[in-house]
Structures are given as C-alpha cells and as structure tokens.
From TrEMBL, chain A:
This is Trifunctional enzyme subunit alpha, mitochondrial. Heterotetramer of 2 alpha/HADHA and 2 beta/HADHB subunits; forms the mitochondrial trifunctional enzyme. Also purified as higher order heterooligomers including a 4 alpha/HADHA and 4 beta/HADHB heterooligomer which physiological significance remains unclear. The mitochondrial trifunctional enzyme interacts with MTLN. The lineage of its organism: Eukaryota, Metazoa, Chordata, Craniata, Vertebrata. It holds the Pfam family 3HCDH. It is found in: Mitochondrion inner membrane.
Automatic annotation (TrEMBL), chain B:
Keywords: Acetylation, Acyltransferase, Endoplasmic reticulum, Fatty acid metabolism, Lipid metabolism, Membrane, Mitochondrion, Mitochondrion inner membrane, Mitochondrion outer membrane, Signal, Transferase, Transit peptide. This is Trifunctional enzyme subunit beta, mitochondrial. One of its GO terms (biological process) is fatty acid beta-oxidation. Gene3D superfamilies: 3.40.47.10. Belongs to the thiolase-like superfamily. Thiolase family. InterPro entries: Thiolase, Thiolase-like, Thiolase_acyl_enz_int_AS, Thiolase_C, Thiolase_CS, Thiolase_N. Its main location: endoplasmic reticulum. It comes from Scleropages formosus. It catalyses: octanoyl-CoA + acetyl-CoA = 3-oxodecanoyl-CoA + CoA; hexanoyl-CoA + acetyl-CoA = 3-oxooctanoyl-CoA + CoA; tetradecanoyl-CoA + acetyl-CoA = 3-oxohexadecanoyl-CoA + CoA; an acyl-CoA + acetyl-CoA = a 3-oxoacyl-CoA + CoA. Residues 1-23 form the signal peptide. Residues 55-325 form the Thiolase N-terminal domain. It is found in: Endoplasmic reticulum; Mitochondrion inner membrane; Mitochondrion outer membrane.
Amino acid sequence: MDKIVSYRHKSISPIIICLHYSGSLNRIKPWFLRGCLLKLLPFFFLEAFRSHVSYEVKDDVAVIRINNPDSKVNTLSIPMQREMAEVMNEVWANGAVKSVVLISSKPGCFIAGADINMIQACRSAEEVTALSQEGQKMFEKIEKSPIPIVAAINGSCLGGGLEFALACQYRVATKSRKTVLGTPEVMLGLLPGAGGTQRLPKMVGLPSAFDVMLTGRNIRADKAKKMGLVHQLVDPLGPGLKDSDVRTVEYLEEVAVGFAKGIVNKSIPLTKRKGIMQKLQDYAMGIPFVRQQIYKTVTKRVMNQTKGLYPAPLKIIECVKAGLEKGSEAGYLEESQNFGKLAMTPESKALVGLYQGQVACKKNRFGTPEREVKNLAILGAGLMGAGIAQVTVDKGVNVILKDTATEGLSRGQDQVYKGFNAKVKKKSITSFERDTTMSCLTGQLDYSGFERVDMVIEAVFEDLSIKHKVLKEVEAVTPPHCIFATNTSGLPIKDIAAASKRPENVIGMHYFSPVDKMQLLEIITTDKTSKDTTASAVALGLKQGKIIIVVKDGPGFYTTRCLSPMLAELLRLLQEGVEPKKLDLLTTSFGLPVGAVILADEVGIDVAAHVGKTMTKAFGSRLDGGNIEVVTTMVEKGFTGRKAGKGFYIYEKGSKSRNINPAAEEILKKFKLSAPPSVSSDSDVQYRLVSRFVNEALLCLQEGILSNPMEGDIGAVFGLGFPPFLGGPFRFVDAFGADKLVQKMKKYEEVYGNQFTACQLLQDHAKDSSKKFYK
Amino acid sequence: MDTQVFIIIIIIIIIIVSHHVEGGHFNVKIKSLAFKCSMQTKSKKTLAKPGVKNIVLVEGVRTPFLLSGTIYNDFMAHDLARAALLGLLNKTSLPKDAVDYIVYGTVIQEVKTSNVAREAALGAGISEKIPAHTVTMACISANQAITTAVGLIAAGQCDVVVAGGVETMSDMPIRHSRKMRKTMLTLNKAKTLSQRLTLLSKIRLGYLTPELPALTEFSTNETMGHSADRLTAAFGVSRREQDEFAFRSHSLAKKAQDAGLLSDVLSVNVPGKGIVSKDNGIRPSSMEQLEKLKPVFIKPHGTITPASSSFLTDGASAVLLMSEEKALAMGYKPKAYLRDFVFVSQDPKDQLLLGPSYATPEVLEKSGITLDDIDVFEFHEAFAGQILANLKAMDSDWFAQTCMGRKSKVGVLPIEKLNLWGGSLSLGHPFGATGARLVTAAVNRLKKEGGQYALVAACAAGGQVVMKVIQNYFFI
C-alpha cells in the first residue's frame, strides 16, 4: 500500500526541499521581450505615455499605482523600473506633495519579484551584477526620500517586491490570505540582490533575517507584523457597494493615505517602540562575539542541511556578514557581486529550470474537463487513501472514504483529522474551519452514495485480482460518467482496465507518500483513456495542489521504473558489504534528501520486493541487481521496514538515532558477494546508483513513456527526491556530459553486464555533444 | 361598479354598527373593516390572513436600561426578569393565574438559573402550574421569545403569553480553564488521598487562567465590533456619518425621555440603592466631543468608537401577548397586531450585521406592503455604522443584484421615521432584552404618531436577523 517513495518530513532539510515553491512565485511571467519594445516608446512620447506606473495627487499625498499591462502580476522589469524612476523624480520635484503611497492596482499582487527572464537574458556575472546595482541604487533613493513613502501591500510581495517595500519608510499590509511576504530567491539558487541582505537584518534582527532569506518561505501578514516587517495591518473587507477585492484595495489605499498624512503631521511615529526582548536582542547583536557565533551556527546548520551542495545560502550569509562587519558599502558591493556569481552557477540554472518546469506542470494541457469533480470516493482508508482524502476535502469536494473494516476506516479518518488539526495548531486554519472541512468527509463501509460520485480513486491492496474486484463493484454502482482512477505504484493500468466496461474512464493517479507533503502526482494514461478523463484527473490533481506529470502506461510507469534499478543496485551494494550507514552518507552527500537505505526501509522491504519481482518479470535481467532472496528472507522474518519497526535499521519510538538491525546484517552476510575493487570506490558507489536511475529515466523518454525531458526532471525531483540542485536526470546528463556518464557506465558494464548498458538516447547524446535536453 | 357600491354600503353599515358597540369590544371582522374605513389615505390592507388567528400586543414594559456595573450591580438576571414581569402584571392588572405560558430570551446564561424564565416566574409569585422556558438567539433572543409566543397562540396552545428578555452584564459566568475543569471533575471521582494528591500535583499555573464568556463570533473568531468596523469600511460609511448618527440617537432619546414618551419604563426598587425609573446611558454630548474619541476595535485606523457602539447594559423587558378574542373577552384594549415576521441569516463573517437589508424586502413581500406603507421603523442600533451600512445596502442596485439576487435595490429607508425615540446606542442594549423593547417602542410610537404599520428589525450574532411587521390597533 505504501508508495514507492516516502520519507519522513522532519528529516528533510528545508533548504533541500525548498522547492516547495509557493503558488505566488508562479506568477512571475516572462515578459522581457515586450519590455524591450515598450522601452523604446518613451523616446517618442516622452513622459506622455506610461504603461506600468501612474500616479495621482490626493490632497498632498501622491498615490503611485503599479500595474504591469497584460499580466496578472507586477514584476520588477526594466520598463517598470524606468517608469518608477521617472514618476519618483516628478513626485519629488512637486513641492505640493508631502508624502507618497505606493500601491498596486492588481488584486492579489503587490510585486511578485524581479523578472526572471531579465536575469536569464544576461550572459555574464558582470551583467547580472550591474542589474543588481541598478536595483540597489533605485531603492537607495527610495530609502533616502525626503518625503515619507508608504508601501500599501495587498497580495504577494516577494523577492524584489519585498526589497522595494523594505526601502520605503512605512509598510501597511492587508491581512488577506493572498498577502505574503518573502525572499524566495534562495529557492532559485540566488540571493535577494537589491539590498535585501542589507536591510532585512537591520529591520527584523539577524536571526529572523537569516530565517527569512535562507528558507525563502512565505510569511503571512500577521506574522510579518510580529516580526517587524510591516507596521500596520488592514483587514480585508466583504462585499459592500462593490466587489470585495476591489473595495479592499481602495480601503487599503485610504488607510495608507491616512498613515502617510499621519507621518507628515507626526501623529504616526515611524519607529516602533521596542519591547524588552527586542532591546535585549539588539544589545546582544551589538556584541561582535555574539554575531560571530551566529554566523558560525548558521553556516554550520546550512552545511549540515545542504552538504555544501547549494552555494546560495552560504553567499547570503557572506553578504549579511559583510554588511554588518565591514559597513554597508562593502555589504552592497558583496551583495551585487555574489548575485551576479550565483546567477551563473549551474545550481541556480537547474533550480530556475525546475521552477519553470513546475509552473508548466501546474497547468492543465488537456483543457477544461466537461464535468467538474464535485463528489469523490476513495477506496481504502490506508495511509494513501486517507492522504488523498486530506488533500481533497478542503478544496470544496465532497469525499467519501470507504474501507472494508471499521478499524481501518477509523484510523484513516483520524489521519485526516490529525492533518487538519496540525494546521489549527499552526494557526493556518481555525478549529471551526477544520470542523466544517471534516463535515465534507464521509467515512463508510458500503457503496451507498456512489450513485452521485464523479470519480473514484482506489487505493486498495496492490493485487490485480483485488483491483479487478473493486473495479467491477464500483462500476455496478456508479454513474456512467464516473472516472475510475487507480493509485497503483506498479501495476500496468491497462491490465487493471481490462476488467472495465468503460476503459475510456480508467486512468492511473499515482500519489506519493505522505500525500499531504509530497507535491508530485503522476498521472498514467492508457491507449484507451479518453482525453476528457485525463483533463478531469489533472484538474482534480491541480485542485489538490499537486505538480503533475502525465505519462504513458507501462510497468512501473516513470517514477517506479527509475527507482527500481537503483534499489536493485542498492541491494547489491549491501551484499557487497557496503555498510548501510556509509551508503546513506554517500547518497545524501550526492544530494538525495534521505539516504538510500533509509529510503528502502521507508518504502517497505515487502513493497520493494514485490515491485522488484514485477519489474524483473517485465524487463528481464536488465533490472537485476542484488539477490531478491535477501529481501524475501527479510520479509519472511518480518523485517518489512519502518512500519514494522525493523528493516535494515531498527526503529524505536521516541528515539532519533537509528541502529543497524543485526539480524538483517546476518542475512546480508549469508548472501555476501565480493566487491570488485575496480568499481567499488565511494564515487563508483554513487555513480552505480545514479547512472542506473538516470539511464532508466532516459529510456522512459526514448520509449515514449515520458512526453518530454522536463516532466521527467520534475517527476524525479518532486517524487523521488532527485537532487534539486542537479535539476533532474535530464538536466544532469546535460550538465555532467552524456559522454562522461557513458564512460562510467561502460566500466560498470564490463563487470555487471547489461544492467549498465547505456540506452540508445544516452549514447546518441554521448556521441554528439551538441545534443542537449535543454537548449 | 357593483362591488364598489357594495363595499361602500358595508362600510356605512359597519360605521353604524361600531357606534353601537361599547367599550371597543368588537368582533374581529367588524374591527378590521372599521379600521379600513378609518384609514382611507393609507393602504387599505389589514394584513389579517384567513385561517390565522389575530394576535395582539396588550402591553409592553421594561426596567430602566442601566449601564453595566452601575445600579444593578448586585442583581442576578432573574431579579431583573422578575421586576419586568411584575411590572407588566401590575400595569395590566393581569391576575397571576391568568397567564398560560412564559417565554424569556437571554444570551449569557447564569448557570444557576439557566431557565431564567421559570425562576423569574416563580419569584414573581406566578402560579407554579404555569410553565416557562428560556430561548437564546443572541441579540434577538427576546424577539425569538415573542415569536415563540406568537406561535403558541397561533397554534391554539395558549391564549395569554408573557414574552420578554433579560440580560445582565454586571455579572457573568467566568469559568476555570478547560484543563482546570477537567482536573477538578476528575478530582471528584478520585477515591484515595494519594489519587487526589497526584491530580492536584498536576495543576500548573497556566490552568488558573480564567475563561471569559466569548464576545467573539465562535465560527469566525472575530468580535462583532471588528466585523462592524469592516462592514462600515466595505460600505464606505465615514466616521463623521457614524458620529452624527450616534449624536442623533442620544439627542432623540433625551428628547423622548424628557417628553415622557418612554412610557414603557418601569420604576424598579433596587434594595439599598433606591428606586430607578430612568435609563442612565443617554448622554447627548457634542459632535466635537464625539470626534475626539479613538476607535476601539480596529486600531488606529478604524472608524467605530465607543460612542458609535451600543454599550454593555443591564435590563429586562416583557410584553403581554394574547389572541385578539381573549384580549377582548378579558376587557383589554389591545395596542397592536403582531403580523408577519421572518428570520433570515447569512455569512457570519462579512455580513454579520447586514441582515436587515435582506429581511426587509422579504417581510414586506410576505405582508404584501411596501416600504412607503411603513410609518414607524424601529431598528436595533448595534453600531451606528451598522445601521448606516444597511441603509446604503438597501439603496444599492449592485448589492441587491450581486448579494441578494434581486433585480433592483430595496429602496431608500426614510430616516425621519427611524428610531425617533432613541435606540440601542443611547438607551442601551441588554442583549436578551432589546427585542421586546423594540416591539414595545414601535407599538407606542404607532399609538403616539397615529401610524398604521411599524417595521421592527434586529440583527444578531451568527449573522441572523429578525424582522417583524406590526400593525396598529385602531378603535373608532
């Protein structure tokens, strides 16, 4: 039942899985080219025509409105920056203006950040550094403005947008759920390059500043107020004489204008009175020794979590340090130079690529389905079933959770409840919202109400005859339009669909455990699956907040198929006597979020054995590796992995340290193989695991299981934990060099045979170095 | 032509007949027709419905409404409720065994007297054979009590019902924290000393934090004032408009008080503190003073101040309702008919206090009359901004179309007919008691002003609202 990939969230560093991109980031749109065209226009019309920034003077307050034309979001593009500079100069020159309010005309977006394409278009670090310096200069002017500037924030205020706001004298934000502040640059392998690394520590203190910049997480308005990022909060309004979104922005503007006037007439103080804790913290930060200690701890933590594989967090620490220790001039210089350097790193390029892939995988390329899924039934209330219920029931979909036994059902419902209750504790929802959400979930043991469901997702035991049985039962009670989705991790969908009266309605929806944490959803279509069925499944997945790849049917589809040879190799390495702890270390230092042996325990040794067998059956000796007997013996002894408390490791409740399971070691000894010295160095161990994974991924593209390399990369990173800084197997081949990889594989092939034979696609790329998966 | 002639003839006959009847003891038919001819200029509808009993309000009273923590400081809720009940009995000379049923509304319940209606009735010396129950529906609890009474009479269960409401905010149940309560309850069950000591040793300092009765909306966790401030902002109600409305409320209340129009106010003897016979929250100040006040709910940029919010109040109210036949048979002169009513509810977050806008057209349509037909409006003033937001909502086509699903706006509510004797902002707002005050005020104003129809509205926590149409009872 457990899916092939599962890991405990806690053990994953926030930085490595920082690819928990927020939705708001998605809104950064390419629009550099158009920007270039628009740039030329003012030469003809001078100030008469401005498309991005406008302003009006209300009493003695200049209200500056930002509104990127033809886009849902505002970005700090070149034309926007230029128009902003013009407008600011006009405002400053106008003696009648005593203060300024800066606001966006777009509901739901203040400024979503800098234009990524603007950075990508640069060919050298110097060019990017120059961009950064321009931004720094502009915000310095804003910071030194002779009249107060109030930033009125509604919606996403991220990256450069936040840096802009930070340069203003006062910040007012709406408490809307859409309002988030943050510096997500680190997730793109970059740093806040327009003064962010310099202003943030001064504004919120060193520890909070590091937290904000190193995690890149979104900060809600109320938290931002507590941290001191914003001065005042404004409540969102309901419908009145206008639409609530429109009126809320108007209200924000009215309130901000009030504050601007208040600042001028001194009734509103610019500095907040500091509490005792704040004063203490400031005092402590004044001591150089304390600061040094903080840099040290933060660096250590970053090294721990990133294994030094991600350069951006370290550069952020350097910039902050330079600013505080050597003065702001040095700090700004360091920031712009590091920004330039980072933009040119392969890590940043890989992360930006992933980001773009993720944006693409959050769209439904199959169009709008004819019918929205309003009622969903899930069969099987196990970890997966309950997890799917949890991510669906709060999206306005009524969910039936059906199991065959009361115990299982009750455990599943509890799991969903716990999921929402955790959100209550984190204050991201209220207890009332939890309760109303839970009211949309019905737990039951029979098929009552199935005549109303639009889709059924089955998450029952991985056995074809059981799947056939439930499929027939479901089709007997559901309406003809009802879609039957199977959450199998390995069984070919067409085999399951063989029992269906309506094979066009059968589709695979492969979720990853834990469903509420893992972002990937792999959707599998057969030759018979209709386009509308696919569109419906994708639409539901998007509603659930998933990143979606759509692949063709086949044994193991894409993800399970890539993982399978890697696990087979892992088993062989264990048999060859590599210590589990060492293997875990080698794999994590390669960039995997969890060690490969722990991963096997998490997946479940029984599941691994089952998948291993079916995959070998389908693909023959190519998918061989270690002796399958090892795992079957382990399963016989009950060492099925984490869920049983024993696998390769022993898991004890409440204990964080893991000890090797001596009984498993015994089994390994029994099946001991000798390690051929020519392919057993640490690096060889790593590449034996990775090359089989990567080769299988390429094979999936070659065979048409994958429709493009981008989905392959997204699937590997978000579903299997392929190192994000490498960008996925395809980008890895591009960057590492197909020829180099083939060379390594040849060496292994000599020892182990066809398991390491590079696929045709990889060989083609190796032969012709101009062939790349990404241009 | 024939029918017109016929009606005229009938009217003439009725006039003749009515002159021959003594003491206002008409039968129903004659009365309603008589009223028709007396109000030629108005709509001629009686609003009586075939097969539905006519229910009349005989009298309504209330204790003075006093600021919480003042003279009623030592009273419990049932003391106030009893005072109102006794006052009503005295004023109407109703024998203590002539009541069939008693219903009271209250919001924050004193745990010891959770059925406060029963305790008040027993305390007032009403026959113990007469049942009583308590209802709760936030600020419209007394309205709920009244409509419950109407239901009992209409269903033929009772003929004479006292309905009312009570609230004291001078005292309210403050509880131990949940953890502490849990410990204490388990302690009750502990058998041995060591078990008890173990339990006691588990008590932490944090357990001692008391729990105040929530004044926030449970579902949204927002206080009503906060929601109201957002509402005023949504409708663009300015601070000045709100201050002016608050000023109006206090000025009108003062005028009414001075002119002796608040005839429903009883004199209550408070042991040790003397007799009170006046509301003490009416404080007409000046616009200048109102402008100085700071916002209380949304700081610093909100618009609702203490002056434009109704204040915490203690008080009780009661009305005597009867079937028309019974009232007439007992020799009473009913003051008014209670006609149609509706309860509606909506989104407790953004439209918490916007109910009157929704309910007004609904109840008018039910009665078959229009806004123009109404002579007296008595709307509960939770906040000045809330009343003004409702007025704006009713006058907006956008709101009608987008939020209410109506073709066009409800219309302009004539403010010159609204709350002319003050409202909750100035008279006070004892949550459970306000509903009966509104009804009595509407009835007394109809009598005084000679109007025909009154419309009573009150909004309540939970986004609920009640709307009542009251029809004057005319005698010829």
